[in-house]
Protein: Catalase
Amino acid sequence: MIASNPQPFYTLAEGTPLPRNDTSVQVRNKNGGGLVLLQDTQLIETLAHFSRERIPERVVHAKAAGARGYFEVTHDISDITDADFLNGIGKRSELLTRISTVGAESGSADTVRDVHGWAIKIKTNEGNNDWVFNNQPVFFIRDPIKFPSVNRSHKRHPATHSTDADMFWDFHVNAPESAHLLMFLFGDRGTPASLRNINGYSGHTYKWTKKDGSFHYVKIHIHADAGIKTITDEESIRLAGESPDYLTLDLYNAIESGNFPSYTVSIQTIHPKDIASCPVNIFDMTKIWPHSLYPLRPVGKMVFDTNPRNYFAEIEQAAFSPSTMVPGIEASADPMLQARMFAYPDAQRYRLGVNYQQLPTNAAKSPIYIPTERDGAFTYGLNYGDDPNYLNTAIEPISFHDTSASQYKPTEESLHGPIVFTSEVTDEDFKQPRALWNDVLSKDEQDRFIHNISRNIAGVKRDWLREKVYELFRKVDKSLGDRIEEAVRALLEETKA
Ligand code: NDP
Structure:
């Protein structure tokens, strides 16, 4: 990695020493003007590099803060998984994290009301393990075909190039399974006060496995040791204007001053034989598993103790994917997880190139040997020298059939059944948001929810669409829909007056 120049002078990128770097070579005329020359390589490279110093920004999760730190095992869970980094109390693995908003662009404000993505790359002895989580336990949708649409509806209108409340709500009234996450988004947790005070959730169901072929379904929860802290809607809007990088700087400054944020990692587990007795479809990302039936089991802790020295190299070029897993962790039949396992590496190949895993920030610390993936733009290192570049060779020293080095075998699970459409919405989709509204939120939290969401819905231009939004929330709870309608009507009256 290019860190700092150990030399007392500047050079061209090819190493040629420069007498000075602050002037172009010019043919001066007697009136003081000057013509620059094509032979001025330093000038040409300086200008050309500047025009090319952006890479495509992430289509979602573009604005982020990042840090380094470690994951430490605090509890024995050897009955659930053989993953090396999760076994052995006290064992530490280094990690890289990136915490983002979702919809807005790289230059946008941190405090806008949004879901926060929370990606964590744990560098283990068995390869990298990525957790690509959110700060809310559920997602808007359970069918991946809606993934681009939900994101576009939160981004910019194709004509006005501006966010658009009609577009946002038009999507959600037509995808009412999103009611659960909307309840979080417009609640207090939609505007965190600090990234040190958020929770993280896998949302997805994973399989944590043992070498004997046994496995459990697992959801992962991360709790901020300093507790949840949030700001009001008004405060989030004020900070978006006055201090757009508020959350990024808060995390950076806390780590810089030695105030290292820490988080507890826990799991909920379900044995495959118990799926039938589970009240929800465990592969549906719009649902939580009730704590009363599936209590949290602590696993470890995470501490962020190091700031990036260079944001672009370490955080912007970091590439996370839910498909990056170690032996002992496997994907489940969660359709959203399956789709993200394709979409995320595909996005990285587009953004960073086909060899993105070789970038220093992404490179595994365990040995890598995959000589059938070679060449391509920005091949770093020796590119496997003269090792065979094809499968099924008997040429020494590598036999591709020699699996003795890895004893890992994926678990067996037989999946069969009819082809179904997963978007059908029933009252099941409103039970959990109803529980959140009636059983979890305090009266003050309910009042703030109504305040926050009505301000947003008041931005909808079409009367009939606002009516549909009230109906959506009446399905969660009649009084909730009624209260939202009353609050929106009052706001619209105020605007008219
Ligand atoms: P519980 O009463 O056992 O759990 C409720 C959970 O809600 C708490 O443990 C806490 O989760 C979370 N919570 C507390 N205050 C708020 C808030 N102001 N805004 C959002 N979440 C809050 O009941 P259940 O497990 O049966 O869940 C009931 C409802 O609570 C669910 O339908 C869901 O909407 C919500 N919930 C459930 C979670 C789960 O994984 N079971 C997680 C988060 C929310 P935490 O400790 O993770 O902050």
User: Anything to note?
Assistant: The pocket of NDP is lined by residues 137, 184, 187-189, 199, 221, 288-292, 432, 435-436, 440-441, 445 (CB under 6 Å).
